[in-house]
C-alpha cells in the first residue's frame, strides 16, 4: 500500500499523528527579499544601519535578521563567539582581514573565534544581508580589546523599544521569539 497517497481519495497523504509535545511553533514571514516591507519593521541600530528581525531564539542563543546598511566605510570590528551564516541579498561587503567578498546571492560562513572588520565599499548604495548569528559578537578595538557585546537579548531589547513605540507592537515582536 502506498504511503504517499490516501488509498480512498488518491490525495497526497499528510502525517496522521500528533506533533511532539513541547515543540515550538513554526514561523513563516513573507517578503523577506523584497525592498518594500513596512519601514517601521526596520530597527535602527545606528545612523544608516538598521535590522529587520526574523527570529529571536532565546532558548538556543541565536537570532536571524536582515541587516540593512546605507552608508559606506567601516561598520564594525568584532569577534564571534559562535558561528554565523550569511546570505547577501543586495550589494556587497567584505572583511578587511579576508580576501573574499560577500556578493549579492552569495553565502558565507563566519567561524567562531574569527575577528574581522566589516567594510561596505564606496560604490554600494545599500547593502542587505540575512545573518544567522549564534552566541555573541564582541566589538573589539584594533588590538582585540572588548568594547561591547551584542547577542539575541540585546537585539531583542532594541526591537522591543522600537516596536513598542512605533505602532508595530509587542504582539508582533513576541511572535518572532522562540
Ligand atoms: Fe562578523
What do these coordinates show?
InterPro entries: ChrR-like_cupin_dom, RmlC-like_jellyroll, RmlC_Cupin_sf. Keywords: Dioxygenase, Oxidoreductase. This is 2,4'-dihydroxyacetophenone dioxygenase family protein. This protein is mainly beta. It has one domain (40-174): Jelly Rolls. The chain contains 2 helices and 12 strands; from the N terminus they run ββββββββββββαα. It has helices at 152-165, 170-174, and strands at 43-46, 49-57, 62-69, 73-80, 84-90, 92-95, 101-103, 107-110, 115-120, 127-134, 137-140, 146-150. The strands form 2 sheets. A 6-stranded antiparallel β-sheet has the order 1-2-3-10-5-8, with helices on one face. Strands 7-6-9-4-11-12 form a 6-stranded antiparallel β-sheet. The model has no long low-confidence stretch (mean pLDDT 94). It binds fe (ii) ion (FE2). Residues 78, 80, 84, 110, 116 line the site of fe (ii) ion (FE2).
Features:
binds fe (ii) ion, 178 residues, six-stranded antiparallel sheet, Jelly Rolls, mainly beta
Work out the helicity level.
Answer: 10-25%
Count of folded domains: 1
Largest sheet: 6 strands, antiparallel
CATH class: Mainly Beta
Q: What is the arithmetic mean of pLDDT?
A: 94
What string gives the helices and strands in order?
EEEEEEEEEEEEHH
In terms of DSSP E residues, the strand content is 35-45%
List segments where confidence is low: pLDDT < 50 over at least 5 consecutive residues: none
Give me the side-by-side strand order of the main sheet: 1-2-3-10-5-8
Overall geometry comes to: globular
Radius of gyration: 19 Å
Bound molecules: fe (ii) ion
Query: Pairing-aware structural class of the strands and helices?
Result: mainly beta
Q: Number of DSSP strands?
A: 12
Number of helices: 2
Domain ChrR-like cupin: 35-135
Protein name: 2,4'-dihydroxyacetophenone dioxygenase family protein
Pfam families: Cupin_7
GO molecular function, one term: dioxygenase activity
